Amino acid sequence: MRALCWEGAGALAVREVPDPELRNAHDMIVRVRRSMTCGGDLPLLAGRVPEAAAGEVLGHEFLGEVVEVGPGVRRHRLADRVVVGAAVACGACWFCRQGLLACCDNGTGGAAAEPEWGPPAAGCYGRPTRLGGFAGGHAEYVRVPYADVGAYPVPEEVDDDRAVFAADAAPAGWHGVELGGVAPGDVVAVWGAGAVGQLTAGAAVARGAARVIVVDEHDDRLDMVARHTGAEPLHHRSVDVLAELRERSGGRGPDVCVDAAGPPSAPARWPTAGPDGGVALREAVHACRKGGTVVVLGGGTPFVDRFPLGAVTDKGLTVRGGSRAGPDAIPALLDRMARGELVTEHLATHRLPLDRGALGYALFRDRADGCVRTVFTP
Ligand SMILES: [Zn+2]
Ligand SMILES: [Zn+2]
To answer: Which ligand lies nearest the alpha carbon of 150?
Structure first.
């Protein structure tokens, strides 16, 4: 089959690779209909993840059609249209039983970051095998392990271009708002107007936040925020962000601040980072009201320098984080999509055949031509 492979720093290519096969009773094979870029892929693409090996298949946000099921799969049948969550989780270990699928002990095997971070979290499609990753969705076919846990049927009313956002981007936003405990009347600030930032803002509005403010420096993305999310845009370069956020929150600061800006632009080497990492995070901690909550979203987040820990203790802040989390929210998000309450397809600003994967990622990485997300069709 054809697949978009990582070939080395900054190099992607569509290659012939072996078709995936069922390896365990709970596996299934999905023929991919749509796959999508994500900011969490960028450190890998840039060659900052030394565990990556040439030829590995990228992509952790995809949907497709079931073409083969293992004998242990109960919830899926041939020809079902399914969206697959980014995390690979077993559904049965201690963490999965607590509902912490993204922390699964069995879906992973990648211990590369263990000396610095502790035990590894759940595996992920399109990540290096040495980091516990699985072949990704930028391909004609993909093997889905623990299929009953990680794949969800797509309602007929939801088309592919909308539903592909239910794999990771929409659950990330929804989960971010849940981690923040956003309640009716809250003021919420979100850093980053990419797909996850916009979907976080929309989720905060849906949960009844009184004001939701999205901070970014790209006019085209902020225009989208104003048009589609019900949130207020705030241009990072043209105003004093901290003063403006205080002003818009009764002088206190936002109740919940979400860093959805993605991995820093130029970390030296994952999982450590250069001195420019964590700008949004430091600002979020600074802006957050005393006793408020700061949420950090995103895969590919490295170490950050100069984290203002004193502000966390002095101001009594709660700091929470999540990456490829919230798969349990996928069915509810698909239902919201079916009812037209959650609209995402405008975030797929670019649609390309998989053969043009390198171009699709270049547009996405450079935010060129107004690119928010590129969606590929194999
Ligand atoms: Zn993602
Ligand atoms: Zn598990």
So the answer is: 2
Question: Average of pLDDT values for 117-138?
Answer: 89
**Helix, strand or coil, per DSSP, at residue 222:** helix
Identify the band that residue 208 occupies on the pLDDT scale cut at 50, 70 and 90: very high
Rounded CA-CA distance 194/258 in Å is 13
**Secondary structure of residue 202 in the 3-state scheme:** helix
| % of the chain at pLDDT higher than 90 | 77
Which CB contacts under 8 angstroms, 24+ apart, belong to 343-347? 343/162, 343/228, 344/162, 344/165, 344/169, 344/170, 344/195, 344/199, 345/159, 345/161, 345/162, 345/165, 346/224, 346/228, 347/165, 347/169, 347/195, 347/198, 347/199, 347/224, 347/372, 347/373
Ligand 2: centre distance to CA 322 (Å): 16
Residue ranges and CATH numbers for the domains of the chain are 2-168+325-377 (3.90.180.10), 169-322 (3.40.50.720)
Q: What is the pLDDT of residue 264?
A: 58
pLDDT band at 273 (very low <50, low <70, confident <90, very high): very low
Which-ligand-closest: CA of 101? 2
Ligand with minimal distance to 121 CA: 2
- Distance in angstroms (rounded) separating the CA atoms of residues 161 and 158: 8
Ligand lying closest to the C-alpha of residue 106? 2
Cα of 240 vs centre of ligand 1, distance in Å, is 30
Gap from CA of 170 to ligand 1 centroid (Å)? 9
Q: Name the residue type at position 299.
A: G
Closest listed ligand to the CA of 102: 2
CA 350 to the chain's CA centroid:
18
